[in-house]
Design brief:
- The structure is a homodimer of 329-residue chains.
- Chain A has 329 residues and is α/β, with parallel strands linked by helices.
- Helices cover 33% and strands 27% of the residues of chain A.
- Chain A has 11 helices and 14 strands.
- The longest helix of chain A is centred in the last third of the chain and has 21 residues.
- At the A-B interface, α1, α3, α4, β13 and α10 of A face α1, α3, α4, β13 and α10 of B.
- β13 of chain A pairs antiparallel with β13 of chain B, so a sheet runs across the interface.
Chain lengths: 329, 329
């Protein structure tokens, strides 16, 4: 079997996750990691692969089947997405929901021109959660769909806390409100305010002698990030933060509540949930399944941008169609 | 918009469910119900549709876009599947898991010849549960997948109890063992015996003066159906059975537990669950989403047998690809 040759662009948490997870996919090989840093200073786990400078990628189009773009949605992907779609089949986790149509168009244009296949906005949200929203809504058209995030670490909110005066370090967890989940599961189809769906729990390491009540107030009243939520602030030591809050865990729920029957007397509840010790490694795992699909779609001359909505599920699996029907159907 | 014109073959619980659920899909119209009975004796809910004898179907190939086959997997579909695939795009809920490859081949052959598109083995298991097994396994290749059924009514087990001497009526619920679910959710990846995964709860109406302890023993020791399970038997009145056990409810869980990380130190749990007041109406709802896909795939000249594994998710939705990307991704 010809293995799928993978390149990784960007070696942050997600790039490292992709490297680790390639080893769990027997039909894939890592060729190289591409970075803006000095490649000599990048130490890979994979002995058979090498780190390259990002500028070297364009010379390697014939030895890489799929490039996984691990950059950020804000400053990296808007340019890297179309740029690399002109050279490679790609997969990314572009997650600025509001700008997906625009990003799709840019990558699609580049991919159609280069005859490459580019899966955008993959991962779990967008990605697996999106799929579950689609399937649930298609099956239960008269219903309501709810997405809850957490319990999990929000990097953006943790960063926002660290910018508060007197804060040395912090970790913020987004947590679904249990009562809200239960009301949805009961088929009530409620409307929620922001505050009713999620709460925010913060573990904060303060400077010696800092005014803790002022820090707590600064966090809880911070617009956009915290002011619309019920927020809990705990002050802990740096040691405790490092010991008990060192995982980039995440998760969430997609729940559809729908009605059927002559008088809408029957309720159906579809619930999908994730509980992830490592958000970057799980996201990486989804990207790799999508890399397999990009590779196969490209072989069938199906070019341009794709989302998980466009990919026949079988294309994500290492198993043949016959084996899938025999073992998983 | 040209609506998708639907025919229903078979007017049992599922056929009736399909009729009800068509009204929830704005892009579909019911043309007719086809039955082996005298069609004059079949009263439809849909005013604009008519009941026909099954033999009339072959004259109506130009006014029906998709025929939903609502017969049973044991005695109806093995012949009806290929027979109707020769005439119509079809959707069915064939659920004899072990014989799916054989059934697929027969329907595929007929559909390729007639240039029709035929979605087989749809519904929720096989169907939505199969999809979740595939997605979860593709994303977490080093893991273990568990399917639990219930709490829900098993028609086959209820029938088996009714055949016990002295039993007037009965309803059997299959129930996942809570402790087993918890162990899977904890990432333990346990191996289970049949008895450890599900228990069976039976509500039995006995004849006046019947030997209840003999009936209970006959049920609990019944091979294939009950002897491998922990079984609870309640004797109740006919009135109570009709009042409290009149819904054909069902549901279940597909849970994947997987490991990632350098030393497999991170666990991911993917859980999908259904809780359905009406098993036939929910199954019907899935079949209709698949009917939409069959119709569209056929327009694109993608003929032969298909399963949910082959269908790009977007084909199931009434929304356009642009709208899906904008609203659900």
């Amino acid at each position: 079997m010809q293995k799928i040759r993978i390149g990784i662009l960007g070696y942050g948490n997600m790039g490292k996750g992709v490297e680790l997870c390639i080893r769990q996919n027997k039909d894939m090989d890592l060729v190289g990691v591409f970075t803006r840093r000095n490649p000599d200073e990048v130490k890979l786990i994979t002995k058979s692969a090498k780190a390259y400078h990002i500028n070297e990628a364009k010379e390697m189009t014939d030895i890489i089947d799929v490039m996984i773009l691990c950059g950020g949605s804000k400053s990296d992907l808007p340019s890297q997405g179309p740029e690399f779609a002109a050279l490679f089949n790609t997969v990314d986790a572009y997650d600025t929901h509001a700008k997906i149509p625009e990003y799709y168009d840019a990558v699609n244009k580049a991919g159609l021109k280069s005859k490459k296949t580019c899966v955008i906005a993959s991962g779990w949200d967008p990605g697996l959660f999106s799929l579950n929203r689609l399937y649930a809504e298609a099956v239960l058209p008269e219903g309501k769909n709810y997405t809850f995030w957490g319990k999990g670490v929000s990097q953006g909110h943790s960063d926002a806390i660290r910018r508060v005066e007197g804060v040395l370090d912090a970790k913020q967890y987004t947590i679904p409100v249990e009562e809200a989940l239960e009301r949805v599961r009961n088929g009530e189809m409620p409307e929620f305010s922001t505050r009713q769906k999620h709460l925010r729990e913060c573990f904060v390491v303060a400077e010696d002698g800092a005014d803790l009540s002022r820090i707590e107030k600064d966090i809880k009243t911070m617009p956009d990030y915290f002011s619309d939520y019920n927020t809990i602030v705990h002050f802990i030591s740096k040691e405790e933060l490092d010991r008990n809050h060192n995982k980039i865990s995440h998760g969430g729920f997609v729940i559809q509540s729908g009605k059927t029957g002559l008088n809408y007397e029957n309720t159906s509840i579809i619930e999908y949930s994730l509980r992830l010790d490592s958000n970057p490694e799980f996201t990486a795992s989804v990207l790799l399944a999508c890399a397999r699909a990009a590779y196969r779609l490209n072989k069938e001359a199906d070019f341009g941008a794709k989302t998980v909505f466009d990919i026949p599920p079988a294309y994500l699996s290492i198993k043949s169609n016959e084996e899938l029907r025999r073992t998983l159907l």
